[in-house]
Specification:
Layout lengths: L1 H17 L3 H4 L3 H7 L5 H14 L5 H5 L7 H35 L4
Helix pairs in contact: 1-4, 3-4, 4-6
């Protein structure tokens, strides 16, 4: 229904707006993981998309399972969500490396 589409779009926009705030979004992950096996492909796809946006890389295996989903749209959304998760993982790695380099660069400089 049009109302459902509006709610889905609003939810996605909200999650994107607060992405990176694990203190807020981390609580949603368990519930979204449960929706990955829902009988409705729209629900499975939305859950995968939101998990990709949230960026909790611990869910990669569960999202990757949707690459074999019977529904082509769900498979495509899962692929995009995994790309988002890979990007999040890369950004965290770069950020950690930058912090480590800064620490090393700061040693002995006074």
């Amino acid at each position: 229904s049009p109302e459902n589409v509006g709610v889905r779009l609003g939810t996605a926009a909200l999650v994107e707006d607060v992405s990176g705030r694990r203190d807020i979004l981390g609580h949603a992950v368990p519930g979204l993981l449960g929706l990955l096996t829902n009988g409705n492909p729209t629900v499975r796809g939305d859950a995968a998309s939101l998990l990709g946006t949230i960026g909790d890389i611990s869910v990669k295996e569960q999202v990757a399972a949707l690459l074999k989903d019977e529904n082509a749209a769900v498979r495509e959304v899962a692929k995009i969500a995994l790309e988002d998760l890979d990007l999040t993982e890369s950004k965290r790695h770069i950020s950690r490396r930058g912090a480590e380099d800064a620490e090393k660069g700061g040693e002995g400089k006074e």
